[in-house]
Amino acid sequence: MSQPLKDLLRTSDLSASDIELLLGTASKFADKPLWAKKTLARKTVAIYMTKSSTRTRLASETAVAHLGGSPIFLRGDDLQIGRGETISDTAKIISGFCSALIVRTFAQSDVDELGKYATIPVINALTDDDHPTQLLADWLTIRENFGKDIKKRKFVYIGDGNNVANAWLIMGATMGAHIVVATPAGKWAPKSSVVDQANKIAKKSGGKIEVITDPKVAAQDASVIYTDVWMSMGDSEADRAEKTSALSSFAVTNDLMRLTTKDSIFMHCLPAHRGEEVAADVIDGPKSVVWRQAFHRRTTIQALLYHLTRGDLKGNK
Ligand code: CP
Ligand code: NVA
């Protein structure tokens, strides 16, 4: 018997059947937030963040509370890690007090190391490279709008080739979707290693991956247009002018949305910068599903905690 999935360190850790299970459970938590209210009774979950957060922190703390547990929020330099304690020692200590660790930080390798040394589930709540919990919320929102039959649909991300774009590629590939990512060429395109990995996954799942540089070609007949901020947490301020200029033609406007299907939706993980990556009349307009997407941050993190602590996700290994 193979071991159950212990952590969610990367979007690619999840199999399609894990995702189906999580989305089903998250839907239940959307209707009845307290149906599993004893799951974490008298237990604690550490939430450690070295980057800012509005949604992920609120969603995580609320999810833990709805499962009957107590969240312990630890900000960046609250921990002795900032004064040189090792990640492995920290992981062992947190494992002695808590039932899970939710972590947001810069380097993916730090999250990987926490996962290696912690004996409790570790959940990646955003790194420079990935944002797996976001994609669960996104996919549930997509499911609510389009159901399971996505064969003829095109799911498009337009903008910076960042952590969210990476996760969009991998999640879409796992779900067998037709994924298009449009970014400027070069520095702001997704890493070729991620695109290669997405292509490999899509080959097995029946999905299709396209990484292009023309936002109009991408938007044509799209069911979803997704975008994210142009400057991510941790991006160098020295790049701002060059990056903003390279991305200016990738802004999601109503002109771009007019190229999409009649039933298309606009998605954004938030926070948004109206007038930069998205026009106000798009994000605040009738096609926008961003508030439902944000709502599902809680339902999906709750599902993740529920299943990871029970050990019933299979993973990809
Ligand atoms: N989408 C998202 O992760 O939001 P926060 O940065 O506010 O957590
Ligand atoms: N790409 C953004 C996502 C924020 C939720 C960042 O990393 O800052």
UniProtKB/TrEMBL annotation:
Signal peptide residue numbers: none
UniProt entry keywords in alphabetical sequence: Transferase
Molecular function via GO: amino acid binding; ornithine carbamoyltransferase activity
EC number: 2.1.3.3
Aspartate/ornithine carbamoyltransferase Asp/Orn-binding domain residues: 152-308
Stored SUPFAM superfamilies: Aspartate/ornithine carbamoyltransferase
EC top class named in words: transferase
Any Pfam family hit: OTCace_N
GO BP: citrulline biosynthetic process; L-arginine biosynthetic process via ornithine
Aspartate/ornithine carbamoyltransferase carbamoyl-P binding domain location: 6-144
InterPro entries linked to this entry: Asp/Orn_carbamoyltranf_P-bd, Asp/Orn_carbamoylTrfase, Asp/Orn_carbamoylTrfase_sf, Asp_carbamoyltransf_Asp/Orn-bd, Orn/put_carbamltrans
Family membership: Belongs to the aspartate/ornithine carbamoyltransferase superfamily.
The protein's name: Ornithine carbamoyltransferase
Source organism (scientific name): Candidatus Nanopelagicus abundans
